[in-house]
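Before going further, learn to read the protein records used in this course. The integers have meaning only within a learned vocabulary of local backbone shapes. To see the layout at work, look at the sequence and tokens printed below.
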Amino acid sequence: MTNGNPEPVNNLVYFLGHDASTLKDLGRRLKEQQLALAQFEHPAELAAAALERLPAVLILELEMLPQDGDIADFLTNLLGTATPGPALICIAESDGMDARLRSVRAGAKAFFVAPPDPAELAAKTLQAYGSGGREPLRILIVEDEQSQATYVAMLLTKAGMTVRTLGEPLSILNVLAEFRPDLILMDLYMPQASGAELTAIIRDHDQFYDTPILMVSNETDADKQIAALLAGSDGFITKPVNSQRLIAFIEHRIRMARWLPERRAVIAKRGAPTRLLDKDFFIRTLERWVRDSAAGGPGSGVLIIELDSPQQLIDRLGLSGFDKLLAQIEQLLGRQLAGNDVVTRYGEFSYGVLTQRKDQAALVGLGEKLRRITADSSLTPSLANVVTTASVGIGLFQPPPEDALALLARAERACAKARQNGGARVEIWAPQEGRSEDRIKTLIEHALTSEGFVLLFQPIVALGKVEGTYFEAQLRLRSPDGELLPPREFFPIAEHHGLMTAIDRWVMEYALDTLRDHRIRHPELRILVHQTMDTLRSREWLPWLREQLISRDLKRIRPVLQFQLRDVRTSIEIAKVLFGILRKAGIHICLGNVTNSPSEIALVGQLGAALVKLSINTLAQTNSQDLTALVEQLHEQKALVVATGIEDQQTVTLVWSCRADFIQGNYIQMARDDINVSLSA
């Protein structure tokens, strides 16, 4: 018998990129944890080193890839197809949706915008090192039927997971303490105790509070499913168990459970001297407050604090001095805010604060205090005698805004008013007195010839490999008080006065201009553009659209035209003919607000729609099994399925398990007025 030497521990971390400033600090931090960092400035050097030994973690600057190249293909060419491969961390020059999606699809454990903070990068590297396939996922199956437990255990073991089965539910706490599972898979109905009862007991123990729990059952009663969810479970998997869906669901829930501590760490930044949080996180928090009626009281608001005359300060101080000034102001801001306040760097020279005070007077008082402290930056000796002033705008939650962007528009409008009135002052947004039909009609007519319309772009995120990068163009009408009115508040009036065709053409021209601006760098861009059947029926519309495409040299890139299904049903035969003409021209059709009605599903196929947006009510009121069947039926009609209106993680989980092709909603990412933010690579 021979004693083989144990496999040496792989402690290698490879860095492919040019950021030498980050590497020194990163290498020191990793060395303290017994990890060895090696830098490569050329892919060929990395490939040569990988032939001798693969790293445990690879940190990749995406700028090293060919333009818009696939990360997975790039790594396969460099490193081969060995399994398991290294855990991947990506760094990009800017925080764009395109770069983030490419990283997610390549299986990256983390994503950073250059230059990354060495401490945070080191922490993510250590985390990736510990989860890069070296420790199998640990799954506890609680199931009184032995045959079912054995079957599921076999599926998960084949997927590389470590599995333990438990047929005596009442001993679960002892087994949890010993086995320490990453996830619990539990039958809903068992003789000694139900899954909901056991879940409530587990959640009462702090050490198991965050452990994901999935229920397995053939239960279709929505009330009973909801009762189990309220007890603390994280989702349902219906019997009979589909192996691929089960494994995907388990891996997703564990990823989310590991993501939560990271988000708590973000919240913990509130204890730092500046307490500034990421802008996207700030806006997502704002969106949750908008949806929560309890959070939008008379003392709730958003403050925009913008420096007056920033260019004069830069000219006087220089860039380095100006940065010191901002750092001082940020620390002063942090000291004045309460524990639940959320603050972010909102713009190049501005900050945003989301806060809740006793009443509106207290809110204005906070604005005055924050305005005054900008003049205290002379506390820094090197900045003595430098006096700064700021304009502060306050956006109110009352009356309730349509969404977070509408609330921010209120604060921005108030801040602009403060600047116009001389700066160094606080202005509070005030709604206009009523909006009559005649007033809104006048606003629409003015917007068609000026800048009264605002077009926002919201990403439609693919859940699998789908060609193209999709955004939806969403129209808003700006009122004189800064409010951004959604279509439901002005479309009926536009229809009544025959203005919809003019609006459709305005939206189309703006969207086509955006496609033109991106046609070279982002030929994969697809924009969903809303149109109405009244516009489509017009004889001159098709020739007009052809001229618009030709004039912008859009030969290979086309918009996706989106129609509401209820609108299309008023002119089905005309739609069949015109949609066919558009398809021949390379223009795809998206049908919105589709339900699980058999007639609507059949109509999707008859009209040749390339994309279908599910009705929000259908998504909310359909159980997982029926939703999966609906998606499959739409796939049979050759349509890709978009689940829209995603507002929480539970809906993401539901959609993921039901195999929809895209997700869209404010929980994923809010609409923005500049598509460059999401596409810059």
Observations:
- Residues 643 and 663 are 5 Å apart (CA to CA).
- The chain has a mean pLDDT of 83.
- Residues 310-336 form the longest helix (27 residues).
